[in-house]
Amino acid sequence: MPRRYEIEVAPTGYRSLKTVKDKKLRREIARTIDGLDRAPEDQGKALLGPLEGMRSVHAARGRFRILYKVDTRSKLVSVLLIGERAPGREADIYALAQKLLTTFTRSEED
After folding, report:
1. 0.70 exceeded by pTM
2. In the chain, domain spans
3. Which CATH architecture fits 6-109?
4. Residues 53-108: pLDDT tens digits?
5. What is the per-residue DSSP string for the chain?
């Protein structure tokens, strides 16, 4: 049996999960995160462009996305952000991820 992956939830992932007020939706999202312990690189889709290196999987009936990174060498899944897909809105999960990445990159350059 293949070794399972360890799952870590980054502070940004934890904070974004806490913003989901509906407990049933939070449980569904948590179940999807727990399912990433087996073959996470085969789940969801690989992201492109500025978010390259991350993956996205649907959760809670497709309403939410979980953004994560997979380290196959150390068998680690890092959940980075959880949010709704809302194209064209500032609250869109991919727009938020790009904003965080830009802020993080700028702070590293300073």
Report:
1. yes
2. 6-109
3. 2-Layer Sandwich (3.30)
4. 999 999 988 889 999 999 999 999 999 999 998 777 777 899 889 888 877 655 55
5. -PPPPEEEE-HHHHHHHHT---HHHHHHHHHHHHGGGS-GGGSSEE--GGGTT-EEEEETTTTEEEEEEEETTTTEEEEEEEEE--TTSTT-HHHHHHHHHHHHHHHHH-
